[in-house]
Amino acid sequence: IDISKAFDTLDHEILLNKFYKDGIQNSLFDWLHAFLKNRKQFVQIGGSESSE
């Protein structure tokens, strides 16, 4: 089952660029960048997992 359309998506690079342009260029930016980089999600129900 493809449930990707059920959730809003946000391009992390666009978000990070917006923060950077708005002046968030300190340790908070560094933390957000590290937190969002290569982040993946999946759903697990019982013993079954969705693809990333």
From TrEMBL:
This is Uncharacterized protein. It comes from the Eukaryota. It comes from Capitella teleta.
